[in-house]
Amino acid sequence: MSTTSMLTGNALTVKLWEMKAWVQASRMSYFGKMVSDGSVYMPSEFKGRDNKGDTVTFSYVGKMTGVPKGEGGTLDGNEQAMDLQSHSMVINESRDAVKIPNSGIEPQRTKVNMEQVVNELLPLRAMELMDASAFNQLAGVNPTSFTIDGATYASTADKLHVQGHNSIVAPTTDRIIRAAGAATDQALTSADTMTLQLIDYAMEKNDLSNQPIAPANDGYFHLYISPADAVNLKHDAGSSITWYNNQLANIQGGKEDQLSNRLMDRKIFLGTYANVKIWQAPRVAFGANSSTSAVITTVRRNVLVGKDALSFASPYGGRPSDDDVPLKIVNKLKDYGKYKGIGFELLYGIKKMSPSNKDDTGVIVIGTYAAAHS
Description:
The chain has 374 residues and is an alpha+beta fold. It has one domain (11-61, 82-369). It has eight helices and 17 strands. The chain has helices at 11-28, 30-37, 105-108, 114-139, 156-159, 196-207, 227-235, 243-252; strands spanning 40-41, 55-61, 84-90, 92-101, 146-148, 151-153, 176-178, 221-225, 263-264, 267-273, 276-280, 286-288, 295-305, 310-313, 327-334, 339-352, 363-369. Strands 7, 8, 9, 10, 11, 12, 13 and 17 form an eight-stranded mixed sheet that branches. Helix 1 (11-28) packs across helix 2 (30-37). It is globular.
């Protein structure tokens, strides 16, 4: 009699675990939300492990411009050329691991299932890198050194792990505003905090743009702001339109209560204003001094995100519908099985969609003063 078994060392078992871990972690991450919203473009040119190389370039076609011809005019010989642009990005790897006792007296001394805990922590750590990369790319900011999630990134090589393995591109002129009209991040003062009016100004800039960003797949724009910005927004009482009064009117009108219930899809949701959904996200990028590139931790570059704001590439795919994922879990025994190393490897790239000589495709940056309140 033959029996088909699925042992823990079976390659398919590992693959199923990686898929499950990736999907679960993605649902808790803001990058995963951006993917589901259509804010992340995944080029088919790179998908598939048979497509070798570490760079992908795909085309972008700009909108038509120019003056049409009317009665008596000659169109022949006066046609427009297609505005063909290209977007290039690279992929690379990020790895991290934990070594735990695997046998002997040490595992006997604790009831903590260390292997289970590590297997839960690794995909969450991977998604921290993905979230940080997404927000740093969207913000278009590259400080010389900054600390996020307890780790300090100072060298160019180290920063790439929280920059999606691609160089940072500064926001184009019509894709950034700052509170009080400040010209630089360092010019923002303690009075220049997040307000609903800034959303109006950002949407006005978008409406006046020759190439406006498009809403996400759900028909909304999504604004991601830092925790300090969220507090400033909720406590703002000096503006003509305030978050509190807006939410109070929603409650009185029978709409969902965001004053006491702030969670949606396990993320902090602050409500909807002017077709913009507002989310609190801890890894929104810091500001930077325009002269020295020094990080300014009291400034945040919040991002208003629409469709195709980022590009993402991995030979393993990454969407829940794909048959593989960029997250790979690796186990390695050491010292005759005394210790076990459990690690992850990510093979991917994230880059803001910013074609040459064109405005950023799907993001507007809103710079504010956002010092912590405690």
